[in-house]
Amino acid sequence: MPREVAEVIEKDILPHIPEKHKKDFFQFSLPAILKHKLSPEHWKAIVQIASHIPEEDKWYFFISGLPATLWHKLTPEHLQIIAQITPHVPKQHSQRFFEYSLPGVLKRKLTIEQLNQQAELAKHYVTKLGGTFYAGKVVTENFGKLAPPNQTVNRLTFDKTDSVLIPLGGRLTGHLIRIVTKKAFEAWQKAHDAGIPVEPITRSYEIKNGDYKGMVRVYTKAIGEVLPEYLKQNPHHEDELEKQRQGILTQLKNHGIEHGHAHHDHNFTVTMEKGKPQLHLIDWDRAESK
């Protein structure tokens, strides 16, 4: 092993790997990294990438994300572009970005120019969507497929259990489609019409054919930050938001509406309205109404 490589590993990598993971690093990850015979420029870019990854995730990047990324035989220039992208991946999504999203992007063999364009679009999407948890997930899962804001609308992907959520990109960035059962939609519409603070319904129609025949396609908008992430930054609003949560649950009960998973904190989002936090209940795929 060249001396300069050994110095990078000792100085810039090992301090970030917990003792309990060092055996795996030396036995599996380091040999997988070294077989690529990286140049000093490669290592410089790798250290730059790592500098933008949250401390608690750095070890996972070196053990799993980096070896997976290097399989694509990247040039130092590619790694430098990745280093520019990394700061725009919200920290809670960085692990998933390197393990799942980035390898998929690299398989598409985008040019340096295309990667640069996607890096700029990632910044735009995160800004447009308010830097939220949802924004980070959309950018992480769709990097390489982000459309410019002045172009035709495109459908993006969003990994979700139980139901279908389709973020829209291009001209309609910030809008999304949910596909829910007719029963769930009727409960959502009832809550919406009753003035309960819920995910807005901009338009909807029943699906007449295909895999989702009989279900309802609902057009809505991404609103606010999910409650757990908001409270991390604004713990002083916890009492007020808990009061609002109980108020929403009471309203649902009074109107004979069952949301289905209102116990899940990530199904509440927070917006700022007239300088005050406002709670909203989202994700109505399990809802029903009496």
What does this structure look like?
The protein has 290 residues and is an alpha+beta fold. The chain has two domains: 144 residues, no CATH class; 115 residues, no CATH class. It contains eleven helices and ten strands. The strands form three sheets. Strands 1-2-3-5-4 form a five-stranded antiparallel beta sheet. A hairpin with a 2-residue loop joins strand 8 and strand 9. The protein is elongated. The mean pLDDT is 88.
Summarize the structure.
The protein is an alpha+beta fold and 290 residues long.
Keywords:
single chain, 290 residues, alpha+beta, 5-stranded antiparallel beta sheet, 3-stranded antiparallel beta sheet, 11 helices, 49% helix, 14% strand
What is the CA-atom radius of gyration, in angstroms?
22 Å
- Provide the residue-averaged pLDDT: 88
Low-confidence blocks of residues: none
The termini sit apart by: 70 Å
Strand content: 5-15%
Query: Quick one: how many beta strands?
Result: 10
- How many helical stretches? 11
In the residues, how many domains can be counted?
2
Q: Strands across the major sheet, in which order?
A: 1-2-3-5-4
The H-and-E topology, N to C, reads as HHHHHHHHEEEHEEEHHEEEE
Layout of strands and helices, then pairs:
Elements: H1 3-13, H2 19-34, H3 40-50, H4 55-70, H5 76-85, H6 94-107, H7 112-128, H8 133-142, E1 154-155, E2 164-169, E3 175-180, H9 182-193, E4 203-206, E5 216-221, E6 225-226, H10 227-233, H11 238-254, E7 257-258, E8 268-273, E9 276-281, E10 288-289
Antiparallel strand pairs: 1-2, 2-3, 3-5, 4-5, 6-8, 7-10, 8-9
